[in-house]
């Protein structure tokens, strides 16, 4: 037998613990910006979308890399061509996904009166800029998490997803708040 | 070649998952009702702090499960005809125990953090811990069944599970987790 529940728990607890600490920090940022989220509910609605797309693309990339490492068609080296090809694809797919979703969210939200007179141009700029920054950060952390855990002899499958989604959640919330302040929504 | 396969198998699913996340976000903005009487975020102090942690814990544990099962498939340990074996059971048991431990921890940490943030009204530690543990374990059980279902369908279709399980679990996970937080908030709120 290859898997045992005790080994899975033992391997996962340290990284999950760190992830929980960082996520609680992300939650505190949300709590601190509660007023912004009450005035513009479209941003509260956007947060799971921004984070989930970032986490999804990072996880797909990570899962592909970890299977590649297990089987041997990807080597744990930053110059690996297969890895670079996968990374670039992840960033391009991310950009398209965010742009399409931004349009869907804006029209859905204006239908439900959640936009508070923000223009579609402002919203798409904020959403796609946040998403693009996030995808770059998440893809890089996915590659690093897969390679480092593989080199240390840990099962990268237990490591990549927590690292990617945690980095994605905190940076997603942080980037969104920073970009809203840079572009300005008039509050 | 790999990149093309990734774009073809992932992009439609990613957009679909994004739409699922919009549903999750809508539930979240329902909790943030403009009427202060019905605003759960204002009524249960500390709830906003635990939401990212619970959602991400759920996502972390489930996608790690999906990712392990993906590698198990590539290594030939599980396949379409040999799915419900002991390897699968060990994986599920491990992720359920992890859900319980981590939920408990999130509840305790949220209480400590809101203490240090100096929130105007402090959460009751028993209430916030119960909400998180019920939401965490309940969503864990639902998602384990869902994982087996997804893995089974992916095998039948002959797709690479690595391209599918992560996004599918993360997205269903978010919606199910936010619904479970909603449910346990109402349950605990009704008991006090």
Q: How would you describe the overall organization of this protein?
A:
The complex is a heterodimer of chains A (187) and B (192). Chain A has 187 residues and is mainly α. Chain A has a domain at 58-187. Chain A has six helices and no strands. The radius of gyration of chain A is 18 Å and the shape is globular. The mean pLDDT of chain A is 87. Chain B has 192 residues and is mainly alpha-helical. Chain B has a single domain (2-191), classed as Orthogonal Bundle (Tetracycline Repressor, domain 2). In chain B, 82% of the residues lie in helices and 0% in strands. Chain B has helices at residues 2-31, 40-43, 47-74, 86-117, 125-157, 161-191. Classes of the chains: A mainly alpha (187), B mainly alpha (192). Chains A and B meet through helix 1, helix 2, helix 3, helix 4 and helix 6 of A and helix 1, helix 3, helix 4 and helix 6 of B.
């Amino acid at each position: 037998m290859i898997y045992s529940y005790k080994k899975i728990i033992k391997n996962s607890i340290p990284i999950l613990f760190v992830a929980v600490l960082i996520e609680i920090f992300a939650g505190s940022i949300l709590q601190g910006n509660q007023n912004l989220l009450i005035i513009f509910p479209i941003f509260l609605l956007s947060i799971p979308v921004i984070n989930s797309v970032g986490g999804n693309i990072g996880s797909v990339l990570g899962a592909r890399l970890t299977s590649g490492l297990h089987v041997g068609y990807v080597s744990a080296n930053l110059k690996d061509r297969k890895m670079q090809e996968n990374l670039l694809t992840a960033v391009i797919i991310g950009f398209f996904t965010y742009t399409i979703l931004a349009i869907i969210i804006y029209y859905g939200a204006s239908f439900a009166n959640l936009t508070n007179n923000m223009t579609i141009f402002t919203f798409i700029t904020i959403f796609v800029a946040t998403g693009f920054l996030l995808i770059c950060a998440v893809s890089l952390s996915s590659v690093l998490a897969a390679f480092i855990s593989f080199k240390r002899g840990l099962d990268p499958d237990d490591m990549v997803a927590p690292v990617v989604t945690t980095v994605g959640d905190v940076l997603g919330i942080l980037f969104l708040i920073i970009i809203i302040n840079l572009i300005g929504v008039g509050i | 070649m790999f990149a093309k396969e990734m774009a073809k198998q992932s992009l439609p699913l990613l957009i679909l998952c994004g739409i699922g996340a919009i549903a999750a976000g809508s539930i979240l903005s329902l909790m943030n009702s403009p009427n202060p009487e019905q605003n759960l975020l204002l009524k249960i102090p500390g709830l906003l702090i635990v939401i990212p942690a619970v959602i991400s814990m759920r996502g972390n544990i489930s996608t790690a499960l999906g990712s392990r099962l993906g590698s198990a498939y590539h290594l030939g340990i599980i396949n379409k005809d040999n799915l419900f074996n002991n390897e699968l059971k060990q994986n599920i048991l491990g992720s359920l125990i992890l859900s319980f431990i981590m939920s408990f921890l999130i509840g305790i940490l949220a209480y400590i953090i809101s203490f240090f943030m100096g929130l105007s009204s402090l959460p009751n530690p028993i209430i916030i811990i119960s909400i998180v543990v019920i939401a965490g374990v309940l969503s864990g059980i639902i998602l384990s069944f869902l994982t087996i279902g997804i893995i089974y369908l992916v095998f039948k279709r002959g797709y690479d599970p690595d391209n599918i399980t992560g996004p599918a679990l993360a997205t269903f996970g978010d919606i199910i987790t936010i619904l479970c937080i909603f449910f346990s908030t109402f349950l605990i709120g009704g008991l006090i």
